[in-house]
Amino acid sequence: MKWQEQLITIYLYVCKRYQDNLWVYSQRMSNYADLSFTDEEVIAIYLFGVIDKNRELKKIYGYADRHLRHWFPRLPSYTAFVQRLNKVADVFAPLLEIIQQEQEEKIKGKSG
Fold first, then answer.
1. Inter-residue contact 88 to 26 (CB < 8 Å)
2. Alpha carbons 27 and 48: distance in angstroms, whole number
3. Cα–Cα distance for residue pair 6/3, rounded to 1 Å
4. Which of 17, 60, 64, 71 has its CA 20 to 30 A from that of 52?
5. Is 54 helix (H, G, I), strand (E, B) or coil?
6. What single string gives the DSSP state of each residue in 36-92?
7. Helix axes of 3-20 and 39-51: crossing angle, nearest 10 degrees
8. How far apart are CA 73 and CA 65, in angstroms?
9. Domain locations in the chain as residue ranges
10. First to last CA, the chain
């Protein structure tokens, strides 16, 4: 799979799951939240970086800044990116549970 297809797949998957039920884990309690760069974009960039074997936030952000800027034109500064990632951190545990359940269902479907 080309990296562009992988990025699009991750982004669409995150958007679907986020809109279904993950949004409750990162609710905003402020009227002044700047959502020009969405939670889905933050999550997708982070997951894309991790899948690409980057474990450091600076490397993930640096790659996104250099190579994905045209895909994410409103990518904030590194500091703002890390702050947003921290605000959506509670999304990752339920997201992993969803992925695990889907994989188990696929395995049961193939064997059953």
1. yes
2. 23
3. 5
4. 17
5. coil
6. SS-HHHHHHHHHHHHHTT--SHHHHHHHHHHHSTTTSTT---HHHHHHHHHHTGGGH
7. 140
8. 9
9. 3-27+34-111
10. 28
